[in-house]
From TrEMBL:
<feature type="domain" description="Transposase DDE">
    <location>
        <begin position="7"/>
        <end position="75"/>
    </location>
</feature>
<dbReference type="Pfam" id="PF13737">
    <property type="entry name" value="DDE_Tnp_1_5"/>
</dbReference>
<dbReference type="InterPro" id="IPR025668">
    <property type="entry name" value="Tnp_DDE_dom"/>
</dbReference>
<protein>
    <submittedName>
        <fullName>DDE family transposase</fullName>
    </submittedName>
</protein>
């Protein structure tokens, strides 16, 4: 989900919009608070055998204000 942190040593990691969007999509789909979302995404990545960094609570909180999560859905008859 988090395609990697970009940046230099000692600097705050910078996550792509796609990584933030993926985490926020999980948050909306499962109705999770942000702190639970970070743990859930980290667990999913670990189960998948991926060693990708996960955006922390503060990063998600700050970036969710500027990114809109749009989920396509079909209404059931």
């Amino acid at each position: 989900m988090a395609c990697g942190a970009l940046g230099q040593a000692g600097a705050q990691p910078v996550y792509s919009d796609a990584a933030i969007q993926a985490c926020l999509t999980v948050k909306v789909l499962f109705g999770l608070p942000l702190r639970q979302t970070t743990g859930f995404v980290a667990s999913l990545l670990k189960l998948a055998g991926l060693d990708w960094p996960v955006p922390d609570y503060s990063t998600l909180c700050r970036r969710q204000k500027t990114l809109a999560v749009q989920l396509p859905y079909a209404e059931r008859p």
